[in-house]
Amino acid sequence: MKKRLKPALFVLMFAVLLWQVAFCAQKTIKFQVDKKYPPFSYEADGRVYGFTVDLANMIFEQDRYFLQISSDTWENVYRRLLSGEIDITGPVVILEERKKYILFSNPIFTRHVGIYTKKGFNRKIALDNLSSFKIGVLKADYTESLLSKKLGVKKYFAYPTVEDVLKALLAGKIDAAFTTQEVANYFITRNNYTDALELKVKDIFEVKSAFGISKKHPELVSYVNSRLKLLIKNGTFDQLYNNYFSVYSPYYYERQKNQIVLSILYVLIMVFFASSLTVLVMIRLNRRLRTDKEAFEKYAQLLASNANVIVLTLNLKGEIIYFNKFAEEITGYKAEEVTGKRWVDIFIPEYKREYIQKLFSKIAAEKVVNGHENEIITKNGDIRWILWNNTVVEHSYLNEPLIISTGLDITQQKKTQSLLEESYEEIEQTNQELVNALEILNRQTEILNAQQQRYKFIVDNISDSIMELDFKSREINFYGRQKDEFDVESINLKEDHISWLNLYHPEDRGKVLDRIQKALELKEENVEYEARVKDRSGNFRWIYTRLKIFYDANGKPEKIIGVNIDYTNKKLYEQRMEQLAYYDSLTGLANRKLFEQKLDDFIEEALKADKMGAVILIDIDNFKDINDLYGHEMGDEYLVSICKKIDEYLKTLSQKSFFARVGGDEFAIILDDLTRKDDVFMVCSDLKKIFEQEIYLEKAEREFFTTCSMGISFYPEDGTSTKEILRNVDMALSQAKENGKNDFQIFMPYMLTRNLKKIEIEKSLRKAIEDDQFVLYYQPVVDLDTLQITGVEALLRWISPQKGMISPLDFIPVAEESGLIVKIGELVIEKALKDIKVWEQKGAGNISVSINLSARQLRAKHFESKVLRLFEKYRIDPGKVIFEITESGAVENFDISLRILSFLCQMGIKFLIDDFGTGYSSLIYLRRLPIGGVKIDRSFISDIAYSKESRSIVEGIILMAHKLDLKVVAEGIETKEELDVLRQMGCDSGQGYLFSKPVPKDEIEKLILQGRILI
Question: Rounded to an integer, what distance in angstroms lies between the CA atom of residue 80 and that of residue 92?
């Protein structure tokens, strides 16, 4: 087994690598269609339109394929497909003889062949006497092949287009037209031939049509089939098909007429029902008035019991008389444990009991006391804060006055308030420290200004030390408090007239000498500079020096007097402030602020010098796991170690680089003055290897290794501002993560377009949630042995007032990424429960409803509590609901999923694993999860009738599931052959277009009440 597994893994890894490389660039697909075959395809104003063209645009994703669309006569199109000059065309009738030369996708629709004549054509025409008539047919079309080979008609008239065939029929050149009904109906409706032509013999042949694919590109078959599956599943295909064909079909108008009649009949029935109900209500009204008091009391009791606030009834002594369900949930006490006992003895801390007892007296006196806050102790010892409203109720039917108290749990608000107060105190403390530092600096400045105004130069500037340099005597003297701190004895001007420079730091000597020499050349009198001076301990201190140069009558320097101010502490403070402002305290790397400034400079220089650079944004994959499992201290140690390795690597590069930490586990690298883009790809490959190396952490006493995802953007090619480059590189990083992480991705312009589309969809989704633009369609689930409908699957549809029905493929990924899927999922569950309630009232209460759950929805906070409240609200038996989850959704955060699923299963809700076989497919997880069955993915069903491999896989899944006592549902059943094979294998249930496509609530009700599917 291991020998077989290694080659398989190698092939899989190689295939993934090839796919990732191919994904970096769009692949051109040559798609050519018949230019005169509406509504499937036709040319107008230099462009190609039609059902097949729109369907191809939906199938081929824009970020992976560039669809090059063209048109020609059908003869030329088919010839080019055979020779491989084009990649794909459609629609093509699936014929056995054609399978020798081209490949076919799954069928996309069924075409019907009929015979058309003029209205009033009295001669009998049938299949067995066609040879006696002048028959017209489309040249080189499958109808010509059917006419000549299937029906044996050798003499006929062939025309280049169907429209030409119909025109010949109108002109009397032929007696009948033998052609495709869908195309003929289109031209008859469009050209207003309905009064002149009629369909004499319909549905002679039914033929399947599909996309025809060149044998040079067999990989397109599986891709087209998978995309078709998605479009059919989410209803987009049906919408497109109806847009093109419904309005040109006589059956469409007949169905509309029937729907109008049924609607009128429905309204009359409802009017009669309403009238009857009114009479019944009037009869019972008097009886009901007599029981209003009792009903109201029961309602009040029900309301108090189920309110999401604490509701108490106490006497004036503070003894508990009534204690509602929410109070039980908050405190942990059952009503029977506290009834008859004093409130303060159970729930109030001892030091506050006297105060609360006085509060009861205040309530008794004032009758109403609202807005009172106090803490209570729960059964497990927790402290919770409650906001109380209290009212004293007195009535003749009460034995004594009672206090009605309602309490709102504000514990979370109190915690938030406490955190805000702590944060505010920290900010205030930091602000005060900064204010104190600023006051010190201001005072020093004010003192210096006062001295300058009060005294002349030397007196004004007496500070730390004064230096006097005499050029004639070649002597140097120091005065002031710190003169003894410097090694003045080492200076001997008589031997070396610039030996005084030895006091300065080697890096500052040249700067100081140049400044003084320049002043002497220009005869300047005042000179200022700052430099580092060495003290007797060998340490360097920052000195700010102000010199006064005195010249003789000839302009030669006589003496220099300088005031040296020690501002080492200030310089260190400035450096520390700069470090805090521009550098990361953990890693010592530049922070985001400094990174953006540097990037500004690099981009500006690149624009001036016509250079190229790149930004690499790095994100550590699953870094959160280290923090969660081992603590933030281990995470910090890992960040320091990995940054050190990256920094050492960057120093070995020939390119100019800049490395910064721009987020928690995000880092950015600037590579400037690049000669070619391939250099960046090599750097990214090396960085991946660095992350994949093990790093030993001493505190954890173990090795760690991670992977990273990277985004790349080139400047100024991708943008001429820091904002643009950072936006682009962030999108590239997101794409790398979507591709499976542990990879790098270059920014491509389509990412920006897609990102803008995501933003627009997310904005529209929020509006759709507010306006309730979502509806549910349902597809029946059928017992494969009896064809009885046992359940339905709820499928979400978004109907926008502006755009109509929007494909789930477009908005579900955005909803998942933005988190809106949680709110949308709640809406789906609530709508489904409402519909179940309606069906129960109509006598269809034995039907189960399957609802899809996303992984994010399952992990949402308080998900199980929200589900429980919805079931209580609509009073639905949980056993009628099945939640469908994917394998990956269930296995991700497995412990959490197991807890939630177990809780919901105890309620009676059932679970199915959706798309089984496409995810983890782990028997360990199947055994541990409380699931009732699996759904076999359509990808295994689509070729089960003729593929031994698919049949073996499906048979294995069914056998395994039954051994585990699990039910099996097959989805996507479309043919009678697939149904027969699944029946032989013992599959329990199924759904698919063979039984019914997803339909609105009204239509599914008819099928449910019908009970059994007829095929």
Answer: 14
Task: Tell me: pLDDT of 240 over 90.
Answer: no
Higher pLDDT, 543 or 780: 780
pLDDT score of 579? 65
For the chain, first and last CA: distance in Å?
Answer: 44
Q: Dig out the tokens for 609 from the structure.
A: 């010098």
pLDDT in tens, 841-865: 888 778 899 999 988 888 888 888 8
More confident residue, 372 or 607: 607
| Nearest alpha-carbon partner for 37 in 180, 171, 133, 135 | 180
Enter the pTM of the model.
0.41
Which one, of 801, 795, 802, 804, lies nearest residue 775 by Cα? 795
Rounded (to 5) percent helix, strand, coil in the chain: 50, 25, 25
pLDDT at residue 634, as a whole number = 85
Verify cis geometry, omega within 30 degrees of 0, for the bond prior to 91.
yes
DSSP string covering 253-317, please? HHHHHHHHHHHHHHHHHHHHHHHHHHHHHHHHHHHHHHTHHHHHHHHHHHHHHH-SSEEEEEETT
Average pLDDT of span 924-936: 79
How many helices (H) and strands (E) are present in the chain, helices listed first? 35, 38
Q: So what's the pLDDT on residue 923?
A: 59
Residue 716, preceding peptide bond in cis (omega within 30° of 0): yes
At residue 629, does pLDDT exceed 60? yes
| Distant-in-sequence, close-in-space partners of 256: CB < 8 Å, separation ≥ 6 | none
Q: Is the bond preceding residue 930 a cis peptide, omega within 30 degrees?
A: no
**pLDDT tens sequence across 287-323:** 543 444 444 345 445 545 555 678 888 888 888 888 8
Higher pLDDT among residues 345 and 436, named by residue: 345
Residue that the structure tokens 């051109």 belong to: 28
Long-range residue pairs from 159-167, CB within 8 A, at least 24 positions apart, any chain: 160/36, 160/73, 161/36, 161/37, 162/36, 162/37, 162/138, 162/187, 163/36, 163/187, 163/191, 165/136, 165/137, 165/138, 166/116, 166/191, 166/193, 166/197
Q: Is 930 exposed, middle or buried (0-12, 13-18, 19+ CB in 10 A)?
A: middle
420-448 b/e (C-beta count within 10 Å ≥ 16 → b): eeeeeeeeeeeeeeeeeeeeeeeeeeeee
C-alpha torsion 207→211→213→218, nearest 10 = -100
Amino acid at 234: N
Express each pLDDT in 968-984 by its tens digit: 999 999 999 999 999 99
Cα 176 from Cα 143, distance rounded (Å): 14
Q: Which helix (H) or strand (E) holds 616?
A: strand 613-620
Q: Which residue has the tokens 């019991």?
A: 305
Write the CA distances from 570 to 467, 480, 544, 780, integer angstroms.
22, 20, 11, 79
Number of Cβ within 10 Å of residue 47's Cβ equals: 10
C-alpha distances out from residue 873 to 433, 848, 983, Å: 56, 18, 40
Q: 500 pLDDT exceeds 80? A: no
Contact of 593 with 498, CB cutoff 8 Å: no
For strands 176-180 and 65-72, give the pairing: unpaired
CA distance 749 to 491: 67
Orientation of helix 820-841 relative to helix 808-818, angle to 10°: 120
**Mean pLDDT computed over 941-954:** 87
Strand 109-118 to 65-72 pairing: unpaired
> Residue 466: which of 454, 458, 475, 474 has the closest Cα?
458
Instruction: Note the pLDDT of residue 425.
Output: 65
List, for residues 200-219, the tens digit of each pLDDT value: 998 888 888 999 999 999 99
What is the chain's length? Answer: 1015
Q: Which two tokens stand for residue 235?
A: 């209803």
pLDDT tops 50 at residue 94: yes
CA–CA separation, 686 vs 692, rounded Å? 10
Both tokens of residue 573? 């403070």
Burial 584-600 (b: 16+ CB within 10 A, else e): beebebbbbebbbebbe
